[in-house]
Each structure stands twice: as C-alpha cells, then as structure tokens.
C-alpha cells in the first residue's frame, strides 16, 4: 500500500484546492472522495431517487452505475460529469446520500483501492477517521462559517450558478449540521490529525503550513 495523506474538514474549507496542490508538490496522486459521492448522487437523482427511498431502490440504480476518478475528472458510466456534479442540487443530495450506509459501502472499495499501489492525497469528510484511519499523515482543514460561506458563494458565482451570500451561509451551516450529526461516519477531527484554520490564510500560506507539517510532523 502506498503512502496516504488524508485531509478532512467541513464544506468550503478549501480541501480540494489544497489537496491538489499538495499532491502536485509531493508527486502523489489526488483523490477527491466528495466528487465520488456527488457522482453517486447525480446518478441517483437522474433515476428519480431521493433521500427517503429504500435501500433496494438505491441499490437497483447503483448496480448499474460505474464511477471513476481519473486525473482530477469524474466519470459516470464512462461520461465525464465533472461539471454536472457541481450544482447546488447535487451539493445538497451528496450530503443526504452520503449518510446512507448502502451508498458508503458501494464507494468504499473504489476509494481504498486508489491507494493500493500509489501514494495519494485524499480529501473528504471521513478520510482520516473511517476511510484511511492509518493514514501516513492526517490533516483537518477548517475555516470560519463566514469565510467558508464566502468561498462557496464565489465558487457558485464563478460557475455562473445563481446564489447570494445569505443563501451560501445557510447552505454551509445546514451542511455542517448534516455532516456532523449523521449516525454513520460523522464529520469530526481525528485525535492525531493536524488542525489548520485557514480563515485568514491565503491558499499558498495554507499549502506551506501543511507541507511543513508533512515534512516535520508538527
């Protein structure tokens, strides 16, 4: 098994951006677990499945679903859906469906297999606690709700998706509640994870702080 650098944290903390930069600096592969959950949610919603449907209905769709992550792009049944899965609707449903054990089990092997032969940087919400509890390095990347809401708003705006700052903050707060209070693999900081609050840091500063931890252990 390769070395794993696992980064957890709440929505809007900057995990994807930082993880990609760290992977590039370290010469590791990059795995975005959140993108896999978004792809699963996209497939389920395309088949009119919602969060209240039975496990059997969900599995009926998942059995016909192939999800792959390659070079930063997400593929659903061979089609690149990297942009399609970044909508506000899928942002919501990826959180809803990620609380379902049947969905998590479906994606578990695919995520762990990524580290079988390669060194990887992986980011998500339970990568340090459930997915890779024995990761080589663990980081918990955080930021204030206001800062995360600002980042989320700008992200939607850049993609041409309608949003306003108040709505973005509400979405972030609601996502925090769902992710932290779900019974299955809730978002939390692993005891031995390096905590970095990026609220007042630039992307470059956050990257350098994490690289320092990786190289020195503190």
Chain-wise SSE layout:
Elements: E1 4-8, H1 15-26, E2 29-32, H2 33-46, H3 55-62, E3 67-70, E4 73-76, E5 79-80, H4 88-98, H5 101-113, E6 120-124, H6 127-131, E7 137-142, H7 145-158, H8 165-181, E8 194-197, H9 203-216
Parallel strand pairs: 1-6, 1-7, 2-6, 7-8
Antiparallel strand pairs: 3-4, 4-5
Helix pairs in contact: 1-9, 2-4, 2-5, 7-8
Report on the architecture of this protein:
The chain has a 5-stranded parallel sheet. The protein has 9 helices and 8 strands. The chain is globular. The longest helix has 17 residues, at 165-181. By secondary structure, the protein is of the alpha/beta class. It has a single domain, classed as P-loop containing nucleotide triphosphate hydrolases (Rossmann fold), CATH 3.40.50.300. Helices cover 50% and strands 16% of the residues. Helix 1 packs across helix 9 and helix 2 crosses helix 5.
Which keywords apply here?
218 residues; alpha/beta; Rossmann fold; 5-stranded parallel β-sheet; 3-stranded antiparallel β-sheet; 8 strands
CATH class: Alpha Beta
CATH topology: Rossmann fold
Strand content: 15-25%
Query: The biggest beta sheet, please?
Result: 5 strands, parallel
Query: What's the gyration radius in Å?
Result: 17 Å
Provide the number of structural domains.
1
Distance between the termini: 24 Å
Please work out how many helical segments DSSP would assign: 9
- CATH superfamily, by name, is P-loop containing nucleotide triphosphate hydrolases
In the sheet with the most strands, the strands line up as 2-6-1-7-8
What is the SS-derived class?
alpha/beta
CATH architecture: 3-Layer(aba) Sandwich
- What integer is the average pLDDT? 91
The count of DSSP E runs of length 2 or more, i.e. the number of strands, is 8
The helix/strand series, from N terminus to C terminus, equals: EHEHHEEEHHEHEHHEH
Percent of residues in helices comes to 40-55%
Low-confidence stretches: none
